Description:
By secondary structure, this protein is mostly beta strands.
Amino acid sequence: MSESAFEQLMASVDAPLVVMTTAFGNELAGCLVGFHSQSSITPERYCVWLSKANHTYRVALRASHLAVHFLTEHDLGVAEHFGTVSGEDTDKFAGLEFELDASGVPLLAACPNAMTLERISILDDGGDHVCLTTRVLTAEFGGEFTPLRVSDAIQLEPGHASEERAIQP
Ligand SMILES: Cc1cc2nc3c(=O)[nH]c(=O)nc-3n(C[C@H](O)[C@H](O)[C@H](O)COP(=O)(O)O)c2cc1C
């Protein structure tokens, strides 16, 4: 099937990729995210859209804080790690170097360009992703970098297809 105009526009924009992490209690979660954006200048605000299919979404619904890690052109391995398996059946943080911030959110040692965020609201407009609006608590800039983009990760198979939903026990 040929690409729709919408798909062509989005491919041309070629969003940079981030890893969003969060935690509720001892449960850590994180996934690769292409849907994210600054949403206010003053005050500093940031939005992330999470798939309803994802383990990270289910943890984020209960979490108050999250972190966004900006990936560089050298981080395809990080993208694969967080974007192709699910925290449902894999501990993505086992063997990974990270520290917990004051809110218990994992900060990845491999990704120094990162922000810690406090959740303000969740918007579910009926699509397959929900929007988390957040206030920026801290931002760390490790120096100029070339972002890893969706086109660099086109070969990655997401751990969950966007139309999947968790099976109720
Ligand atoms: C290039 C790419 C972009 C993605 N963008 C998003 C996104 O914006 N939001 C999202 O929730 N999942 C996105 N995903 C999917 C998740 O990262 C993936 O399904 C992950 O394995 C879910 O892990 P989890 O179940 O542990 O949360 C993307 C995956 C890829 C490969």
